[in-house]
Write a structure and sequence with these properties.
single chain, 4 helices
């Protein structure tokens, strides 16, 4: 608990019974969340560090994450300005896929 409180204070926040959560960016991570609520007999500290590599659609196809037909459909949906729902659990690639799809938005559209 002391370590979690020290990390929060160093980032300009405080954790207490009244304020049990802290979500702040860390210098060494993209995002972090600290909680003083007791989970399984202790406190939790979650640190997410994002990859600096920017993936392309071809990377997902090569890895078998999706096939060429689905990749083509997704690109067509973006170009047709269709709504796309992206969902999944933590660490499943939602942000990665959204970043890749964002590259299909024409620069002249004024979006993104």
């Amino acid at each position: 608990m002391v370590a979690v409180k020290n990390i929060a204070r160093r980032l300009g926040d405080d954790i207490s019974e009244r304020n049990p959560f802290s979500t702040r960016g860390c210098p060494m991570a993209a995002a972090s969340q600290r909680s003083s609520r007791r989970h399984l007999g202790g406190v939790t500290l979650t640190i997410r560090k994002f990859n600096t590599r920017h993936f392309e659609m071809e990377d997902l196809i090569r890895a078998g994450t999706l096939d060429r037909a689905l990749a083509n459909h997704l690109e067509d949906y973006v170009l047709a300005r269709k709504n796309i729902l992206i969902s999944g659990g933590t660490g499943t690639g939602k942000t990665t896929l959204l970043s890749i799809l964002g590259k299909f938005i024409p620069r002249t559209s004024g979006s993104l």
